[in-house]
Amino acid sequence: MNFPETLKYTKDHEWVKIEGDQALIGITEFAQGELGDIVYVDISTEGETLEKDAVFGTVEAVKTVSDLFLPLSGKIIEVNKELDSNPELVNSDPYVKGWMIKTSIQNKSEIDTLLTAAQYKELIGH
Amino acid sequence: MIKNTSLTPIHIQLNAKMAPFAGYNMPISYQGINAEHETVRQAVGVFDVSHMGEFIIKGPGALDLIQRVTSNDASLLTDGKIQYSCFPNEQGGIIDDLLVYRLTADSYMLVVNASNIEKDWNWISLQNNQGVEMHNISEKTSLLAIQGPKAAEALQSLTDINLKDMAYYTFKKGKFCGIDNVLISATGYTGAGGFEVYFENEHAISIWNAVFESGASFGIKPIGLGARDTLRLEMGFCLYGNDINDTTSPIAAGFGWITKFTKEFTNHKSLLAQKENGVPQKLVGFEMIDKGIPRHDYEICDASGNIIGKVTSGTQSPSLQKGIGMGYVSTSFSKSGTELFIKVRDRFLKAQVVKLPFYKNS
């Protein structure tokens, strides 16, 4: 399983790619594997400013539904529209084409609370 | 302690996603639910369902005992025929649903749900006041469900029994993979056609391997319990613990067709009254009109937001590519075409009652 060193992670199995004042967010390869075939990615919070750990959407797999938690406080400035018609991109390419949201980071000090790839791997026992 | 089937080591070796189910460590999926579902609908797949329970009921009083504890009329069976049935309880609910196999005129096999083996056994034992011989062979019996349109072709090289001519809900005992006394049953829980094959545990690994070898050119694949659930739900088949339980009426569950008032059985008087006078709630199937997936325990509402029932089973249908579900609703909302709203988190998503099965075989 692949957990790129360049990304940060959360205990809720999201990944975060820091790009200056913005963050690109999705779910990890481990998370997509646990969920199984993803059917819908339901994010209706575009334009909203939410606190860290707030639910910004849900992901529906055939057998289960899971909330998506915002790793860093900020405004959701873009949602990956491609996932409306191709939600399986989250399964097939979780770190690139399967990205979910882009946010503007409100509080950069929160970045220190995120996990490194090594810490995340330890968390999931890999 | 969690139990293994004789095939658990094979599932682990195949890298299946495993989870406890009814006390057994069972394969949930191997390559993904959608792909496995498709394999069964289009070709052939193999489920290890050895966790299921099997009882042998034997002797002169066997039929009488079965008639008293089950709702369907087992006297209509002939040798080699199978019947779907249920055990009603005295409080109006269902102890379990089951298959009744007539081995001979005074010898039957009952196949019950894994989670209910002990409950069912205790109940039948309690009703067995004639000293009918009973054997619980669940622990030593393995069961493979080999399901899909290519099942007969995929297995034919393993037996002299003519598989493609076996009628639905019949069985034969014979040689399979060189092993005597294997019970081959033209039944299943998928609506895709195929067989359920019962044999003793010691043969499990060799039969599993032979089945995959024989089926290789037909695209045979192992299938987990995840796809078993989506396949059965597309057919509108009830799952004990979800759609039926100790408190759900067989009449409300749509089991009228297996509830025969030609004989006396547990709670038959009150069930007959329900059949004649109607029931306040009925189990219905519904399809989502709005985008969304119904799940177990979600509320079912009318257009004004009043709660009229609860979802008992729900999923995204891999074949139909939309949300489908079943649930009990007030009888006035049970007609096909009726608009329902499923409360998915904070939203009311539109759905409509449809006739079962959801998936219609070509």
Quick summary of this structure?
Chain A is an alpha+beta fold. Chain A has 4 helices and 9 strands, in the order βββαβββββααβα.
Question: Can you give keywords for this protein?
Answer:
heterodimer, A: 126 residues, alpha+beta, OB fold (Dihydrolipoamide Acetyltransferase, E2P), 6-stranded antiparallel sheet, 3-stranded antiparallel sheet, 4 helices, globular, B: 362 residues, Gyrase A, domain 2, Elongation Factor Tu (Ef-tu), domain 3, 6-stranded mixed sheet, 6-stranded antiparallel β-barrel, 8 helices, 20% helix
SSE map:
The complex is a heterodimer of chains A (126) and B (362).
Chain A: E1 8-9, E2 14-19, E3 22-27, H1 29-35, E4 38-42, E5 49-50, E6 55-61, E7 65-69, E8 74-79, H2 82-85, H3 89-92, E9 101-105, H4 117-123
Antiparallel strand pairs in A: 1-2, 2-3, 3-9, 4-6, 5-8, 6-7, 8-9
Chain B: H1 8-13, E1 17-21, E2 24-29, H2 33-42, E3 45-48, E4 53-58, H3 62-69, E5 82-88, E6 94-104, E7 107-112, H4 117-127, E8 133-136, E9 141-147, H5 151-155, E10 171-176, E11 179-185, E12 194-200, H6 204-215, E13 221-222, H7 225-234, H8 268-277, E14 281-288, E15 299-301, E16 307-317, E17 322-330, E18 339-344, E19 347-354
Parallel strand pairs in B: 3-13
Antiparallel strand pairs in B: 1-2, 3-9, 4-7, 4-8, 5-6, 6-7, 9-12, 10-11, 11-12, 14-17, 14-19, 15-16, 15-18, 16-17, 18-19
Helix pairs in contact in B: 2-7
